[in-house]
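Researcher: Next sequence.
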Amino acid sequence: MAIRAIRKFRWVEGLFCVYKPPGVHWKLVRDRIETCILEGVNGTPSLAPRVGLLGPGGGRTDLTLTAGSLPPGVRLLGPGRGPTELTLSASSLAAHPLVRGPEFRRIKVGVGHRLDASSSGVLVIGVGRGNKPLNDLYQMCCTRDYTLEGEFGFATDNFSRTGRIVERSTYDHVTQDKLEKVLAMLQQANQKALLIHSNVDMRSQEAYEMAVTGELGPQGKSPPILTGLRVTGFQPPFFTLELQCLNETQRYLRKVVHEIGLELRSTASCTAVRRTRDGPFTVDQALTRGQWTAAQVALTIQHYNNSKRQSRPLPAPAAL
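Model: Next structure:
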């Protein structure tokens, strides 16, 4: 059992992503995934257990049961349901699963860029040896995509629908054109912040090439920066935004919706925050609650590893 369980655990070591539902803390998601993986790995079918026996003198002995040595009316059937024999070895009781217990009791499960309890979407998970690339991903300067849903007409103390309402206002004068102009101003201000924190000479060829390839980003710690922002839905009082950002928190994103309402001489609150991409992981790849099994995790990790190998650039041919 030990060898089979270890082999199966090797298959679930790596990176994958799940879909965190709203209203659930990320720690509960992590603990549930760990439990599901442990159940799958420890549930690997085991070999026939070895049972220890003591002879008349108190020493260890072996007992072999055959079809001829059983009482009348008692049959010993093998896997094929035919007559067989069973040898009970006196080597050790320690190998029996009921004595030893599960092969794995704890496994290291890490979480990448976290989501607060009210948010939903892509949550990257690392299992076992996958925690090292998870930490590398956490330290990388990679953007994340979000979908924000907002509602005009009221403001709350925590910028979300669940907060205490502190102000109400009208929103009849708000149009999609006005909303898009505010977003353009906001994106321009964030673009300047991105250039300031990139620590690259904006007049250099290096800055130009980094901007073209999308590698331009803040060096070290920086405030939250929005790299993209657009309207995808507008039906007052409700509206939907899609944005790309760096070093953000979900509270900061809700505050952005609040500030947009103020710029439009109204008020607005964020009703939903949903992450749709975290670096190379997208919402289409995320495992939902019913897919948090060891087998499904192993398949997802294998698919991600294969896609990484295919995306690696080929080495340059050797000079003749």
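Model: Confidence is low (pLDDT under 50) at residues 85-91, 314-320. Residues 171 and 266 are 6 Å apart (CA to CA).
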